User: Which sequence fits this backbone?
């Protein structure tokens, strides 16, 4: 009996005290400290958006459909923030992403197997075509944002395109999504570094959030590669 209890305890510890959960708790605490230090209504809005976004990245790496629920909530808050900061590219992206996430939510839920989405292997033609369309979209969108008076039009357009590519691959249930998301996070962090340099210290929350999400996205590449092997065996 004692051996069985010990084994059960070890299994519970292994399940909950893993890298994903520990890193999420650390990220949450760091964001909480920053939110308290720079406490304001806007700061706590940013805190809510960031934590929901980090949780979404965590569940994406784990292949769980609930990731889209957290990201929809995160972007709902983020829309208001972008409106104030005049990041029109990010704002437009947020509205569109919510729509895509609703579609992807049902796609992942329909193709859930053993609490992990079934992973799809994409053909070379589909990948090449999607990247070509993305390049054309980048040129067109950055031009529109420039004439619309958006701040940092090229960076805003690049972040939008990278994220939309990531979302397309997410809808297709492909691990390629993580490369799009990582590209987005690099630009996202750059945007909020510029904002922090301009005196908006509350943007430090977005920096922590972007870096935390990037860690989960990198880990997601390895997690999904392992999941592919498992699903092939199954």
Assistant:
């Amino acid at each position: 009996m004692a051996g069985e209890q010990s084994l059960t305890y070890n299994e519970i510890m292994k399940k909950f005290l893993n890298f994903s959960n520990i890193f999420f708790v650390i990220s949450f605490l760091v964001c909480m400290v920053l939110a308290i230090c720079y406490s304001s209504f806007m700061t706590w809005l940013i805190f809510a958006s960031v934590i929901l976004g980090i949780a979404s990245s965590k569940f994406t790496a784990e292949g769980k459909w609930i990731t889209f629920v957290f990201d929809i909530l995160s972007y709902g808050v983020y829309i208001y923030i972008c409106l104030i900061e005049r990041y029109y590219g990010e704002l437009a992206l947020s509205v569109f992403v919510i729509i895509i996430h609703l579609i992807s939510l049902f796609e992942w839920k329909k193709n859930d197997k053993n609490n992990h989405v079934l992973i799809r292997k994409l053909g070379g033609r589909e990948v090449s075509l999607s990247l070509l369309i993305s390049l054309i979209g980048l040129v067109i969108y950055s031009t529109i944002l420039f004439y619309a008076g958006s701040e940092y039009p090229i960076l805003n357009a690049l972040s939008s395109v990278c994220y939309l590519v990531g979302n397309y691959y997410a809808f297709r249930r492909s691990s390629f999504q993580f490369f799009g998301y990582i590209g987005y996070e690099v630009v996202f962090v750059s945007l909020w570094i510029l904002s922090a340099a301009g005196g908006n210290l509350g943007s430090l929350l977005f920096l922590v959030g972007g870096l935390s999400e990037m860690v989960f996205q990198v880990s997601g590449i390895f997690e999904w590669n392992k999941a592919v092997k498992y699903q092939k065996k199954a």
